[in-house]
Amino acid sequence: MSSGVWFFERTYPSANMTIIRGKRPALVDTGFGSDLPRTISLINQAGIRPMDIQYILNTHYHSDHVGGNSWLQKKYGLDVATHRWEGQLINQRHQEACCARWLNQPVELYQVSVLLADGDEIDTGGNLVQVCHTPGHTLGHISLYLPDTRELICGDLLQTNDVGWINLFREGVCSLQISLDSLEKLDKMPIHLIYPGHGPTIKEPHLVISKAKKQLEKWLTQPEKAAWHACKRIFAYALMINHGLAHSKIREYLLSCSWFTDFCYHVFRVEPADFVQTLLQEMIRSGAGYWQDERLLPGTQYNPQVEDWSPPAAWY
Q1: Rounded Cα distance, 290 and 304, in Å
Q2: pLDDT (tens digit, 9 = 90+) per residue, 88-139?
Q3: Left if phi > 0, otherwise alpha if psi is -120 to 50, otherwise beta: which for 104?
Q4: Which of 27, 121, 251, 278 is 20 to 30 Å apart from 8, CA to CA?
Q5: Sequence-distant (≥ 6) Cβ neighbours of residue 46 within 8 angstroms
Q6: pLDDT tens across 280-316, in order?
Q7: Which domains are assigned to the chain?
Q8: Which of 64, 204, 240 is nearest to 138 (CA)?
Q9: Counting beta carbons within 10 angstroms of the beta carbon of residue 311, is it exposed (0 to 12), middle (13 to 18) or buried (19 or more)?
Q10: Nearest to 142 by CA among 66, 70, 213, 203
Q11: Residue 18 is inside which H or E element, if any?
Q12: Residue 256 burial (CB < 10 Å; 0-12/13-18/19+)?
């Protein structure tokens, strides 16, 4: 069975990138803004001219998946397609679009041209792609299924040994159950390979889906574990895009973040100022971060921002 895609496993802060083959190829997710030169290099590596891409397809609107959208759209006039719920927020310049403000993650302005829904199909002139609405990580999260090759691009729904972190405050208190329902939906599909948003290709799809379901089922009975999972991943990502944080700046930074204060008040039931040290201790204990010269760095390998890149201005 030949593959219908080119899959590129990428290092944080960018999500993985996939190109669906065909006369009208589609680019799935464009990485973080500072990684744009690498994004262009990978497109060229696949033997494709950027201007020949039919669509940028976004699995969801977080900064590590949509960061290259704006430049590619301005430079080559590419159409961006994503789930209609998220696309409408982006086109309205809604303050909650991309969760950029809540997460304190920069996303440069772009326009969604094609609003997708569950069951829609896209023909790349070589592969038929079916849109599967798989909410949970975000409410507009989609997966993309190639029925002829039984390949699935799943965004941040799951990884080999993990699931996407759950945002109770922007996606709703039922988002754990919603994510579990999305996994149940995939488990009923004939899938040969899964290309996740982070990490390597999943070669035993239904085994990994089963493990992911068990993880979410556990969190349903212990929701505080889901909160810890989210906090560590959001903070580790902040460390990546800031190339670490000085010890003297961490308290000020965390207290300025909406995600941090929301988790403190509404899940852990503590004053945010009292939770700073608790989070730092857990980051070190779990390996999500480490100290180097009085600077907290992420425990996961990442590409520091290029020197001439600066975060875009807020557009909400």
Answers
A1: 16
A2: 999 999 989 999 999 999 899 999 999 999 999 999 999 999 999 999 999 9
A3: left
A4: 121
A5: 6, 19, 25
A6: 999 999 999 999 999 999 999 999 887 677 888 776 6
A7: 5-221 (3.60.15.10), 223-298 (1.10.10)
A8: 64
A9: middle
A10: 66
A11: strand 17-20
A12: exposed
Please state, in angstroms and rounded to a whole number, the distance separating the CA atoms of residues 114 and 117.
10
Verdict on whether the full-model pTM lies above 0.90: yes
Report the DSSP pairing between strands 121-123 and 162-163: unpaired
Token reading at 293: 């010269």
Written as one letter, the residue type at 299 is: G
The two tokens of residue 226 are 């889901």
Enclosing H/E stretch for 289: strand 289-292
Rounded distance between C-alpha atoms, residue 153 and residue 60, angstroms: 12
Peptide bond before residue 13 is cis, with ω within 30 degrees of 0: yes
Q: How far apart are CA 239 and CA 139, in angstroms?
A: 26
Q: At what angle do helices 205-221 and 175-187 cross, to 10 degrees?
A: 160
Helix 223-241, helix 272-286: angle, nearest 10: 80
DSSP state of 229: H
Cα–Cα distance for residue pair 5/161, rounded to 1 Å: 23
Tokens of 32: 């973080």
